[in-house]
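Limitations

Structures in this collection are predictions, not experimental determinations, and the ligand pose is part of the prediction. Treat each record accordingly. The example that follows, with zinc ion as the small molecule, is included so readers can see exactly what is and is not provided: the inputs are given verbatim, and the output is the predicted complex.
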Amino acid sequence: MSSPIANIGHYPVSSGFSQHRVHPITGKVRRHQGVDFRMPPGTPVLAAGDGVVHTGHQEHGAGNFLSVDHGGEAATRYMHLERFAVEDGQAVRRGDVIGYSGNSGGSTGPHLHFEVWRGGEAVDPQRDPLTQLGGPGPGGHGLSAVAAAATSPASPDAAGGRQHQGAIAAPAPLRGVFAAAEARHGLPPGMLTAVASVESNFNSNAVSSAGAQGMFGIMPGTAKDLGVANPFDPREAAEGAASKLAADYEKFGNWNHAVMAYNAGPHRIEEALAGRGKPLKQETLDYLPKVANAFQQVNRGT
Ligand SMILES: [Zn+2]
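Predicted complex:
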């Protein structure tokens, strides 16, 4: 999936996703189940993914609105449009122009209200890894943004490979090992700690139900490809995990996708980016926010 607007970064977010918002017209407190981008009327609105369009109209609510059913319980919605570029029931591909933004329905100014739904729940489009596929996405709150902040010149000692004292920390004997592997492969400091925490909670004897082994949850076939003879040896596993993350970063040019590839394999992520293949598993969609959250906790207070 991708952003609903080309050059989304040009359009300010006038209202983010939230559980509690005072509605600008009714004054009532209610959920805001999407994100609002302020933009001139007539701006082309793009399908965030392949799917089937449904059109609708609500005089005092969503105005002219579209939804795209992406299958696999995923859908996106686009509200307050000036007009539609597609018909109800039409099949569309990711990036197709499906309508033009406007100010229809209960809207206080020209904007696009965009929603992402998964499994019957509205999710924050600015934090959803789905919308980060195919581009930086509307918000860029994933691991890449966190990693960029952690390694920016504004926090010079974050790049120095010093030991982490955050809410999540690697076992003391391994901290230097992880820091050295991160430095050698150009990983943001703390990334191996975050991955090991999510994969195994630092248990070097872990075996997952899928057969992933050791502290870094490495599958036997992957271990072979990486030249890791013993995935239960945390030193060897850390080196293998670092080289895999670095190779996938090189391939995708972004840490979000590299982390998702660590979970699902680079081939699945390539397919998802191209809009082909099966929808990504929920486990993979959940994996990036887990690692990003752990990464933030590793680096907390630094
Ligand atoms: Zn809105």
